[in-house]
Amino acid sequence: MTVSKFIWVNIIFGFFFMPFVAHNAKAQFTPGIRNFLLSDYEGGNHNWDVSRAKDGRVYVANDYGLLEFDGIKWDLFELPNKTVVRSVLAHNGLVYGGSHSEFGYWKKDKRGVFSYKSLSSTIEDRISHNEDIWQILSYRKDIVFRSFENIYIYKPNGQIIKISPKSAVISCSAVNEKMYVATLNHGIFELRNDKLEQKIYDLNLSKFKIVSITNYKKGLLIVTSKGGCFTYIDNELRLANFKINSFIQQHLLSDFTKLKNGQMVFGTIKDGVYVTNVEGEILFHINKVNGLNNNTVLGQSIDAYNKLWLGLDNGIAYIDLDRTNYLYNDISGKLGAVYDVISYKNTVYIGSNTGLFYLNKNDELKFIEGSQGQVWDLKEIEGELFCGHNEGTFIVDNFKLKKISNHTGGWTIKKTPETPNVYIQSTYIGFVKFKKKNNEWNAKHISKTSLSPKFNTMPIKYFVFQDKNTIWAAQAYKGLYRVKFDDNFDSIIAIKDYGKKFLKSDYNVRVYKIKNEICFKTNGGWYKYEAFLDSIVPHKFLNEKVGKKSNIISDDNLDFLVYMTDEKVINFSGFSNEYDTFSLKRNFYENRLIVGNERISKISNSIYALNLYDGFMLINRDYDYTNLPLQSPVLDRVEINNKSKVIAVDQEIEAAYNESVVIYVSSPKSENHYFEYRIQNFTPNRWIKLRANKLELSNLKDGDYHIELRTVNSLGKISKLRKLTVSIMPPWYKSYKGGSLYFVLLMCFLAFMYSLYKKKMFNEQRRLKLELERKQRELLREKTIENEKRIIQLKNEALKNELNLKSKQLANTAMALVKKNESILDIKNELINAKNAFEDTYIFRKLMKKMDSSIEQKDEWEVFEYNFNQVHEVFFDKLKAQFPNLKPKDLKMCAYIKMNLSNKEIAPLMNISVRGVETIRYRLKSKLNLENEISLSDFLINFN
What we know:
Blueprint: H1 3-12, E1 29-36, H2 38-41, E2 47-52, E3 58-62, E4 65-69, E5 74-77, E6 85-91, E7 94-99, E8 102-108, E9 114-118, E10 135-139, E11 142-146, E12 151-154, E13 160-163, E14 169-175, E15 178-183, E16 188-192, E17 195-200, H3 203-206, E18 210-216, E19 219-224, E20 229-233, E21 236-239, H4 244-251, E22 253-258, E23 264-268, E24 273-276, E25 282-286, E26 297-302, E27 307-312, E28 315-320, E29 326-329, E30 338-344, E31 347-352, E32 355-359, E33 365-367, E34 375-381, E35 384-389, E36 392-397, E37 400-405, E38 412-415, E39 422-427, E40 430-437, E41 440-445, E42 460-465, E43 470-475, E44 480-485, E45 492-497, H5 499-502, E46 510-514, E47 517-522, E48 525-530, E49 535-538, H6 540-545, E50 551-552, E51 560-564, E52 570-574, E53 582-583, E54 600-602, E55 607-612, E56 615-620, E57 634-640, E58 643-645, E59 653-655, E60 661-666, E61 673-679, E62 688-689, E63 694-697, E64 703-713, E65 722-728, H7 736-833, H8 841-855, H9 858-872, H10 875-882, H11 888-898, H12 903-910, H13 914-927, H14 936-941
Parallel strand pairs: 59-65
Antiparallel strand pairs: 1-28, 1-29, 2-3, 3-4, 4-5, 6-7, 7-8, 8-9, 10-11, 11-12, 12-13, 14-15, 15-16, 16-17, 18-19, 19-20, 20-21, 22-23, 23-24, 24-25, 26-27, 27-28, 29-56, 30-31, 31-32, 32-33, 34-35, 35-36, 36-37, 38-39, 39-40, 40-41, 42-43, 43-44, 44-45, 46-47, 47-48, 48-49, 50-51, 51-52, ...
């Protein structure tokens, strides 16, 4: 069935009734594939076998040991002898493994530690040292280990039975409670009561290695590595009439699996995996050219969720066989980046950056000549297919192009409201009007306007109609405008720039019409136009539901939104119906999105196409995505200070103070999931996302911490909560030992305080005694000082009295001198008056001279000066020091004035007249630099 038929059949019947798309081996539609590279699982290249446990964990037999995948991360477990693991089987909580001369099982202990127990070590004397265990399978209650030489049956009681066939054992198959053993040269045996009984022997089978045996109709299907498939019905062996046989013969079969619905999976050595129906017709061929990382399949396994796990020669992969989303992968490499996909007249057309392509009846990619270049838009308009191209706009008719517009860069085209046969297209140079007249399309450039010259050739990428004549347009790089056309859409009559005024950033603006609202996506989030306010305001609903960093990638005319988050997750979301919401698994299209031009195109009522590099992805919206498995977090392991702890259900996790606690969780049955947690003590209303699968707790205070964990998938679905309690024990200083220590320390402290008290009392008494003695000494000293002061005071009084006495004596002496000099002067005057009475003039002069010398006696002056200084403390020294120009006569005058003598009293002392005294006083006042208003007597009396 071709892809076109596939699409239209699904319009009628829906994907729900067709789990696979049937087409020939050349078709390139495949289910979703996820590859795990060597860098993902960090093991060896070869992955020999795969098995998925009931708890959802995947186990892989690898060159380096056993690989375990819990849905998020890979772990490697080595064998004790570090040899390659050839086979693996997860069964009843144990993981059995086979290696070189070694087999046993891994089991998790109470601490969650995965440890290995050897079974072959119990039969060392019976196991060959040159055999590898290539296959492990369960048979009734037994576990069967197969090598080329022997079969080992492990019983529930621990007994191991060894069976050695006559020739090499190629494979073992459990079919309807029976075990078939295929040998190299002696045919097929059936295991009964731990013994082999011949079942089938045919020379035709002896030529080929039997890979597997399974039930088929009323008999058996025998699958060989190179001879194809045989049926064994009613004891008759026939070559099955399967189309897959030729591919098996060509590419060498390595493994085989039969699905529950009867379909079959053939893993080959040379060309990947083939999936066929019950009749051997190929449904899918999945190899390296259409998504598989490696063509050599070494082992395969189908899990409970219909996922095909593959162990490859270089890598690991799984194929989701239960989904109705399919990838188209371009094998040739000609397609490039896909920008739009449409189904037109039962043919799928693909527009890419290299041109326009279509898929023929065999789903082969065909190029339409003359379309080379960038294709932006494909749209069916009035029964015709429009192609918006880098070189203009074309009509596609019978796989040929007809150019109807030379205006370059046809980004998108939309019908005008209420105006028939008129369409507006955004291009590199503005707007182009398309109108159909007489069955011919006419194109006219309508962006030329004098209102805004820069708008004439502005590239417009996104636009929507607000009403009949008004559109909102976003430039390709920067800007947002509201544009109004005339009624005929021949010219622009109004332009208003809304970008700079209302938006924080007018770069990368996209415009949408959602539920009759004009909405805008900017770098800062979502906005909408409020016509009543003529303003642009934040759009609360889209910011919260879609996200500020998310972009809508669906068309305007859908009744739901398709948006891509900042983490490249694509969500289909209804406006009201919660059931309509689902997400695509990112790993199927990761690193293939056209960044900045992601787009979901509607193919039919339920089928949509996501454009990718080198292909596209078909999505069935009617598929029930809510049935994706979602498992509550499983507690794998708890480490306290890097040491694993015994795990018990609902048991408290106890840790000592300052010990770090690491909680490992997983959810192996979940898909596209992550974990969130909250701690009631800290964040009761906020969930925190775990970066990996472990929760690390450190530096916690003592007490109980109630932790809740949950699993969240890409749909936003939430699992049931897993609750844990982590109890941090109090530090030693808060424990019983700490209390005992505190009691001892308290007693010691009290004893110490008592000794301090005793010592303090002793020191206080001693201090008081010393203080008393000090005060007594202080009182005695103060008394002594007081007595000394009294003595000094008495001495000063005595000195003062003595000074007063000497002053009086000095005054008396001066007065005596005055009296003496006055008497001598009187006598002298009388003698002068009686001069004539002297006959001898010599005697007269001699008397006069003696009288003058008596008046001017120097010794008497020196005695006076000495006594004067005793009273007035070196008066003359200070006076001479301050006034060095004073003469002895001046000093005498100063001393007499200091003693408060009158001029009349001074005159006889100096043997001059009163007039002479006044003259000397006048001159002395000048020598002392005294102003006229200053009294000479006051100055000298107060001079010290």
